[in-house]
Structures are given as C-alpha cells and as structure tokens.
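Bumping with the actual sequence this time:
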Amino acid sequence: MADFDESPGKTLSIADAVFIIIGVVIGAGIFRTPSLVAANSGSVIQALSFWLAGGVVTLIGALCYAELTSAYPHSGGEYHYINRAFGSMPGFLFAWARITVIQTGSIAMLAFMIGDYSSGIFSLGPYSSAQYAAFIIVFLTAVNAIGILPGKRAQRGLIAALGLGLFFVVAVGMVYGFSTPPEGKLMVPSATGFSSLGQAMIFVLLTFGGWNEAAYLSAEVRNAPRNMSRVLLASIVTITLIYLAVNYVMLQSLGLQGVAGSQAVAADLMRLSYGENGARFVSFLIIVAAVSTMNATMMTGARSSFALGQDFFHLRFLGRWNQGRGTPVNALLVQGLMALSLVVLGSGSRNGFETMIEYTAPVFWFFVLLIGVSIFVLRHKDPQISRPFRVPLYPLMPLFFCSVCVYMLISSFLYTGKGALFGVAVLGAGVPLLWVIKAASGSSPSERRKRVMKRILSSLILLSLAGLVFIWLMGGQTKIIKPDVPYVPTPMEVVDEMLQMAGVNERDVLYDLGSGDGRIVITAAQRWATRGVGIEIDPRLVQMSRRKASWANVADRVEFVENDLFKSDIGAATVVTLYLLPELNIRLRPKLLSDLRPGTRVVSHSFDMKDWVPDETRLSAAYWELFVDYDHSKRSFVYLWIIPANINGTWRWGSPEGASSLSLNIGQRFQMARGTLFGGDKERPAEISLRGDWVRINSELQIDGRSAPVTFEGRVKGDIIEGTALYGQGREKKTVPWRAVRQEGTAVALN
C-alpha cells in the first residue's frame, strides 16, 4: 500500500533546486522575446541594459523571497505567505488563479508549442499539434507522479541538453558576430518614456519569470533555512549571465534592426552560418526548452494545489502527499487533467505568445506585489519567528521591489488594455466558489445542504449579472478581433524581393493589405522614400507598426490604419502588397480590379489568384511555412499583377479613308484580350496586347483595294482610347491620330 503523509520529505539538494529553477525560467521565451525587447530599444546598449536591469530587479526580488523561504519553508510557497499575511480569501484566490490560469495555462501553451514544432518534424494529421500536446502532458505528469527522483533526473538531463544547445548558439554568434559586424544604423524610439520602458520590461521580466517558483521547493530542500538563499542567488546570477550572453551575440550578429525585425531571432542567427539545418537545430532546442519549462512548472504547480487541499476540507484529496514517491500524486493528476481540458478546448486554434502575456501578466504581477507587501506584514505579525536570512537594506529593497511590481502591474494594464479583464474575470470566479465551500462547513447536514444550495443559486445570479456587465464593458470599449488568418510575418529577404519586383520609388503610394508589424511599408519608406499605408485588423499590430515607423524616422511618410481589408478605401494606391491565403486573395480580387487604377502593381508572397495569371512570377530565395503544412522543403514564389484597364465591349472610330467607320469587338479575361475588327463588309481577327492602361491592337484592313497591316495603340481613359493609328507598311506607311469610343452598354466587368 502506498505510504501517504501530509508533508513532503527533504529530497532536494541545492543543485537539484537550482536545476529546477533554471528549467522553469529559461524556457522558449528567450528564443522569442529578444526581438520584442529590441523593438522597444533605441540602441544595442539600451537593449542590453534592459536585460541587465531585469536581472537586477529579479535578484532583488529573489532576496525578498529568500527571507520568506528561509523563515517559512512550506510546500505551498507563495500561497502559504499570502494566506499567512492576508488571510484565507486572498490565499484561496491565488491558488485558484494558479490552478485555472497561471500554471495550467502555461502548461497547455508550452504543450501546444511542443506540438507545433514536433509536427514540423513528423505530422500526425489535422490535429497533430493537439495530439503531441496531449501526449507530452500525460507523459510528464506520469514521470512526476512516479516520484520526485525521475522528475528531477529528467530535469537535470533537459537542462544539460538546453545548456549545451545555448552554448553552441552563443559560440556560433560570437564567431559570426566578430567576423561580420552588423550595420551601425540604430533605431531611435520616439516614445522613450513610460510606454517604451514599460513594454520592454514586461517582456524582459516575463522571460525572467519563474524564479519565484523556488518558494514551492522550500519544504523539500535540505536545510532550507540556510540553503534557500543560496538556491535563489545562484539561479538568478546564472540566468542573468546566460541571457546577457545570448542577447549580446544576437545583437552583435544581426544588429538591433535585424533582431527587432525577426520573429525567430535564434533561428535567423543559426541560419546565417548553417542554413536551414541551423534553423532546424534551433527548432529542436525550442522543443527541449519547452519540455524543460513544462516539467519544472508541473513540479512546482502541483505543490500549491497540495497546500490548498491541506487548508480546505472539501479539497482534501489535493492535500495528500505520497511519501514513498516524494510527490503530491493527486494534485499532479488534477493539474494534468486541467491542462488536458485546455488542450481539448484549444485544439481548433493556437493562441499567440503575446495573447498569453495579455491574459496572465496583470494577475501575475498583482499577486507578486502581495508577496512583496507580505514581507512587511509578516515582520510585524511574527516578530518572534527566526529569520536565518534577512533581506539586505530593509526596508529599501522590499520597497523597491514593490514599486517595480506596481509599475509592472500598471504597464501590464496599459499594454493589454481591456483584454486583461479576461484574466481578472477568471480570477473573480473563485470568489463564489470559496463562498460555497465555506457554506459546506459546520452545522448539521440538512442546514449545510440548504446553505450550499442558497449560495450556489446566489452565485449563479451574481455571476450572470457580472457576465452581463463584463460583456457590456467589452462590447462598448474593446473590439474582440478574430482575423481571417493568423499573422505570419513576411521574411525580410522576401520583403526586399517583393518591393524590387514592384519597382517601387519615391513617386509611389504603397498599400499593404494585412500589414502585420508594418515591415513592408516601413522598408519601402526607408529604402525608396515611398509613401505607404498599412491596413491591419489587429489593433495591437497597428500600434506596434506605428511605433516602429517612429523609430525608423519614417512616420511622416507612412500611415497605419485599423480596418477590415474588404471595407478599406485603396483607390489611391499605385502598389499593393499581399501575404494572404489563396481564399482571401480570391475574395479580394473583385475589389482590386474595381477599386485600383489601371497600371497599379499588385505583388503577393506565396499565394496566387487562381485563374488570374500573374504578369510575372519569381522563385523566392526564402522558405515558407503554411499554417497547417510544416514541410520546410517548399520554396515560396513572388507574383506580380498589373491591374488592366477594362476594354471589354464594342469600340468604334473612323476609317483611314473616312468613308465608313470601323468597329472592334473585344472579349477580355483579366489582362488577356482577343478581338474581331470589322471594316467594310469584312471581319478580321485582332491581336491585343494590354498592360495597365496601355493597349496595342494589331490586325489588317482593306486599304486602296489591298490588304494592309494596321496597328492601333493608345491609353485607355474610361470609354475612350486615345493614341495613334499606323496604316500600311514601307513607303506607304501612314501614322494618324486615333480616338476610339466604346459603345454604351457593351462594357462587362473584368471579374
């Protein structure tokens, strides 16, 4: 029979705890957030300063936590501190947030990330990512449920592999960076105050996030009162040095603009030296990092659920510790089931990295602020408690840490806006749950049943009213946008190819439909002084584009508009760029043909317009990835169309002899047209060349009793073509002005 107990054993050494903390912190974020931090920086030094500041802030926070973990070693960690300082309500809400949002949401997100990258290696079908995600959740839950020993051995192996991989990336970056220095041109942010600093630090501190999970290990670390401060300090210093080294080589190799413009900065770095094999190596490294973070998150997350079960009788099944295995098996299983339910719900879509920040950051920083405040509260409430480690420079350091938490809490709300209400709403749902649980305690069984039923009914009414208010707030002040297609950025090398193919110059007006982060419009303005407009439905991407335009000093030449592509006025464009799926291209085709002036150039990356044959097609040097197809061996094409004038219908003009008129019947399919020329009593085929608003017609006519070649060419201006007519050949060749008029009612729409 399994040996169950109410408390964990002292099974972790300092090295074990350090490996777990590093595993939680150094996850997939370091492969993504450097570009976001660089985008909020004005120089390489400023970008590195953000990362150093993040390390310093985290170190101060770790010193504050070191006092709490040494004075109150407990498997409940932060839950225990909040509960002890502020009472059961805040403690319960914190544990509820970890079970429903913070921990299980992070586990599910990491599982989907693993599934996405694993599907790129070997796809399991339409739901490949979800299947991989479910498998890794079940597998790691089983590993940790078997016992603490397999869990910590797995963590050590994962950290060793991740460390070697990061060391290799840094080494490659050092070699490449010093052999090929980046461009010296720097971005200069126009908004360098609260907004820029706040957003940069959100991403930096998010990447440092997880160090606080050490609190949940304090009950299992040997000689915790003395060793927990060493665990925290060793972990934070190591992580800070790793982050500084990784960011230094990325910035040294790719430059600030290269890092800021990349969506897969580590892959771009490795691709410079090792091509696509280097990028695949980084994909494998991301899988290892995500598995490492997920394994460590499972280990610490189950421990807060265990502590919650010990404090609440009706949740006591969570508070059972398997002494033989050294792990809270029930809490692990419940956590795994919650994460699996999120995978099932999310199997039809993938949440973006920034969406995860939006929903979790405000709630996270609110509770971290409570932890900081709890240092003051507990020193006042428990002056007799032994504190083997005391935070230096008290109360200055805790005050500074709390100030940072307040700053980050405000920045989180400023960055996320009303979207943060979703996380707050889920957190608030824990209030009626606690109310019902407390109603089930004490009194006789019949009284408890009556009280529980009343509170359940009252809770449902209150939740319904709160839901209506929430919907009203969101509907009145926030747009919940569901784009027609996930945002996938165009690689910078393809941006250059598209703009070169379109032949953009300073006289053009470029419209980018689905402009994303604005890179196409901004690049055209920087390199060719082109005026541009980006149209994007996602307000966050519009804001990002505007900031990048300011930093690139092209805000006077570009504009970014939040709008639906199909409702936007694009008539002023001379160049249109697209990176949309084929079905969206087809839906846009009538609008392009009707709204754009003849001669406007339309350039698309990867996807064509079916039976509208492009005027020019080039094989791109870049690889591409379709959203449901992970075959990296495919290459992308760049397509160019010239909007043709509509010359469908019957045209008439005078004959060269003036005795009778000529007529030309034209049938047109996009830029392809054929005609029949009628002169006198004969009809002859006419070859028609059309490019934009310029048309040339070659045929034959009976002139002076002989058949002679004729050429008509000119510009189309609505229902009139004006140009020249060339009759005959050799010495008899004659050129005269030509003006053809389309007969009313004969025109037909191109699409």
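The tokens above came from a reply further down the thread. The mean pLDDT is 75.
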